[in-house]
UniProtKB/TrEMBL annotation, chain A:
A divalent metal cation binds at H143, H147, Y164, D339. It catalyses: L-threonylcarbamoyladenylate + adenosine(37) in tRNA = N(6)-L-threonylcarbamoyladenosine(37) in tRNA + AMP + H(+). Residues 21-53 are annotated as: Disordered. This is N(6)-L-threonylcarbamoyladenine synthase.
TrEMBL record, chain B:
One of its GO terms (biological process) is tRNA processing. GO terms for cellular component: cytosol; EKC/KEOPS complex; nucleus. The keyword ATP-binding applies. It catalyses: L-threonyl-[protein] + ATP = O-phospho-L-threonyl-[protein] + ADP + H(+); L-seryl-[protein] + ATP = O-phospho-L-seryl-[protein] + ADP + H(+). Its EC number is 2.7.11.1. Component of the EKC/KEOPS complex composed of at least BUD32, CGI121, GON7, KAE1 and PCC1; the whole complex dimerizes. This is EKC/KEOPS complex subunit BUD32. It comes from Friedmanniomyces endolithicus. The lineage of its organism: Eukaryota, Fungi, Dikarya, Ascomycota, Pezizomycotina. Residues 215-238 have a biased composition (Polar residues). It is an enzyme of class 2 (transferase). InterPro entries: Kinase-like_dom_sf, Prot_kinase_dom, Tyr_kinase_AS.
Length: 385, 374
């Protein structure tokens, strides 16, 4: 029996998870009662027999999101402060729910990267503190791998093409020649980032998440305006779309109801129509590049992970595409799609069982300490490997 | 996955093909479209019919818009490159016979398929049929020969490498010509390039099933076996013209950025499809910027190559190679870079029928979708 604590904080969600992995394929005990801030969990078993992922049990999965006011995004400084404010509370609550003894905990897992530097640093500090306080080894986990591992474990997808879509990442990952490779990605900004920034221009609420609110609004829209469709081979580009849709948003605000649907010339364009237009266009692009990767490697399963994967319209579109190809789509619900501590604990524990451990010296939250990154990056976000 | 389409299934084809007498053979089913081999307007004119079926997962307005835009864009680009169109401002004068390698309209005649007909509402485009196999298959063939014969240091494999270099140089020059004509392909992969043998007897037979015994080639190689063979057989050598196909994502552009992205797409596609030959890719870029037949020699090519460096850096995440856990006993999570050490190629990427000794790690999927990237 192995138990791990996972801390996630690469963006504005602070997640603390405690996971239990049995050593063999023995059935797990009765699920322990617990409730997270958002939903309840139970034990789950990997569906596929080819998996050697042991049955896992979620002992605690708590999350608190830093929500910024409408019209704004979350800044690293404020986000880091939020994480620092909440981490102790969440860890305490998680430990209480999980009812585990300190001796039973194998390791402390945390997100080493990629993500926003300051919030990652706060979480790293918390992880280091726990590790030294409780005398437990540390395991730094790659955020993206956490998502993929969790998605596979929960859905039991055997060999999927993975669409990883969130505020910070948009990649199509497929297995080819004994390796997982990135087949396609967003060349400029992530799709979630595009959606979030669009929400800001329309002052759509960020609670619980801007993408969620865009989705709800889009359900009421039905006019499809014309947006540039930028698929470049296996890659996609969203900055052009964002620029155009922001223009449209400003036009909508200024028009005061006088902007009419060009087809019928009677119905006024609404916020919902813009949300609908944006979603249909960007999701069609994502499904297209996923389909290309599937055709290229001959896969039939698609796994969607990352925050944007919660979107039901995206899941629906992907499902239709997969079905047309004789395949299926796998997706998790918001407990696991959105950044959470459990995925970090899960991936970290798997690694730890094979002997992986992050030494204290390597957990410095200063990006420059990871030598090979210095001078090579022009991006705002640091890649932590 | 080549198969003749029986008359009963013809109704699913768009007008005017749904009740016409010509033979149809499904060559490939890519992500974007279906490719058929058939004849057009006359039984002695073999043609490639590309159908873009409706995608039900897209909003219908978006779907129609995209289909129409893509068919028209592709046709316009091919017409420009083949020089079949009317000279702009020339008072209705047709473009004179362009020499191969000329920059501008007509500069790629013979190196791209010519347009025979289209219907943007119906969602189809008919182009000339190109004999031969894809460059992807050719490289696999040579790569396998290299593996078999190249076990010792300096022992064999060198010829194959030279052959490959020659092929890659050809590739670089053709792409250079393309860019010099003011067109950017948009989807450069080795599946979108054909090696047309130099001497070909025009194929006009559809006898029996047109199947090649060894593998279903997505090209005329299957039907070529019906005819008395010319001296150069497409399957053995890397000679012949390198013909670009599938201009579905092509745009007319002269910007360095677009050209660099074009090369970047090719570089990445090449690296993931032919990992063993990845190190040779530099030949392509070298021929692009310095090759005699390129059209992008000198400053133009140099600027694009420099832009390419920028584009590489800009890719949001570096090309990671993730060692996956959970496949058999869980393995440590590591992000690796570098050449892979395996000798066997992923089974699903090989043409059907190839004997592979180790158990496949992946389900052998539909390879025809993988080989022709429509």
């Amino acid at each position: 029996m192995h138990i791990a604590v996972g801390l996630e904080g690469s963006a504005n969600k602070l997640g603390v998870g405690i996971i239990l992995q049995s050593s063999h394929d023995t059935p797990t005990g009765p699920p322990s009662p617990h409730d997270s801030a958002h939903s309840d969990d139970g034990a789950f078993h990997p569906h596929s027999k080819q998996h050697s992922s042991p049955p896992v049990q979620i002992l605690a999965n708590l999350r608190h999101t830093f929500v910024s006011p409408p019209g704004t995004g979350f800044l690293p400084k404020d986000t880091a402060a939020h994480h620092r404010r909440w981490v102790v509370r969440l860890v305490r609550q998680a430990m209480k729910q999980a009812k585990v003894r300190l001796e039973d905990i194998d390791c402390i897992c945390y997100t080493k990267g990629p993500g926003m530097g300051a919030p990652l640093g706060s979480v790293a500090i918390a992880a280091r503190t726990l590790s030294q306080l409780w005398d437990k080894p540390l395991v730094g986990v790659n955020h993206c791998v956490g998502h993929i591992e969790m998605g596979r474990a929960i859905t039991g997808a055997e060999n999927p093409v993975v669409l990883y879509v969130s505020g910070g990442n948009t990649q199509v990952i497929a297995y080819s020649a004994q390796r997982y490779r990135i087949f396609g990605e967003a060349l400029d900004i992530a799709v979630g980032n595009c959606l979030d920034r669009f929400a800001r221009v329309l002052h759509i609420s960020n609670d619980p998440a801007p993408g969620y609110n865009i989705e709800q609004l889009a359900k009421k829209g039905n006019v499809l305006l014309e947006l540039p469709y930028a698929v470049k081979g296996m890659d996609v580009s969203f900055s052009g779309i964002l620029a155009r849709v922001e223009e449209m948003a400003k036009k909508l605000e200024a028009s005061n109801g006088s902007w009419l649907d060009p087809e019928t010339n009677t119905a006024p364009i609404t916020k919902s129509d813009l949300c609908f237009t944006l979603q249909e266009t960007v999701f069609a692009m994502l499904v297209e590049i996923t389909e290309r990767a599937m055709a290229h490697v001959g896969a039939v399963q698609v796994l969607i992970v990352g925050g944007v994967g919660c979107n039901e319209r995206l899941q629906q579109m992907m499902g239709i595409m997969a079905e047309e190809r004789g395949g299926s789509v796998y997706a998790t619900d918001e407990r696991f799609c959105i950044d959470n501590g459990i995925m970090i604990a899960h991936a970290g524990l798997l690694a730890h069982k094979m002997g992986f451990e992050t030494q204290l010296e390597d957990t410095l939250s200063n990006g420059r300490s990871v030598g090979q990154l210095a001078g090579l990056r022009r991006k705002k976000r640091q890649d932590w490997l | 996955m080549t198969s003749p389409v029986p008359p009963s299934a013809r109704e699913r084809l768009p007008i005017p093909f749904n009740n016409s007498p010509e033979p149809f053979e499904l060559i490939a089913q890519g992500a974007e479209s279906l490719l058929y081999k058939t004849t057009f307007l006359s039984p002695s004119q073999p043609a490639a019919l590309k159908i873009r079926p409706v995608k039900k997962w897209r909003h219908p307005t978006l779907d129609k818009r995209l289909t129409r835009a893509r068919i028209l864009a592709e046709a316009r680009v091919l017409v420009k490159l083949s020089g079949e169109g009317i000279v702009a401002g020339g008072g209705g004068r047709k473009v004179k016979d362009p020499k191969k390698g000329d920059v501008g309209a007509g500069g790629m005649r013979g190196l791209v398929p010519g347009v025979l007909g289209l219907d943007w509402e119906g969602g189809w485009l008919v182009t000339e049929w190109i004999e031969g196999g894809t460059v992807k298959e050719a490289i696999y063939r040579v790569s396998r020969a290299r593996t078999m014969g190249g076990s010792g240091v300096g022992l064999g494999g060198d010829d194959e490498v030279e052959e490959l270099r020659g092929l890659l140089r050809k590739m670089g020059e053709v792409v250079g010509k393309l860019h010099a004509c003011g067109v950017v392909h948009g989807d450069l992969t080795t599946s979108n390039m054909m090696l047309r043998p130099l001497t070909t007897i025009p194929d006009n037979s559809f006898e029996s099933d047109g199947h090649d015994e060894t593998s279903p080639q997505p090209s005329g190689a299957a039907s070529a076996s019906m005819q008395p063979q010319p001296t150069t057989t497409p399957n053995d050598s890397l000679s012949g013209d390198l013909v670009l196909i599938d201009f579905g994502l092509a745009t007319q552009s002269v910007s360095d950025e677009d050209r660099a992205v074009d090369l970047y797409v090719l570089e990445r596609a090449f690296g993931s499809t032919h990992p063993r030959e990845e190190e040779l890719f530099a030949c392509v870029l070298d021929a692009y910027a310095h090759g005699e037949g390129s059209g992008m020699q000198g400053k133009a090519g140099k600027t694009v190559i420099r832009k390419l460096e920028d584009v590489r850096m800009r890719g949001r995440k570096k090309r990671h190679v993730v060692l996956f856990t959970g496949r058999g006993p869980a393995m440590p999570l590591r992000l690796l870079r570098g050449p892979d050490l395996d000798v066997f190629t992923e089974k699903a990427l090989l043409p059907k029928g190839t004997q592979v000794s180790e158990p496949a790690n992946m389900k052998a999927g539909d390879t025809s979708g993988a080989s022709l990237h429509c």
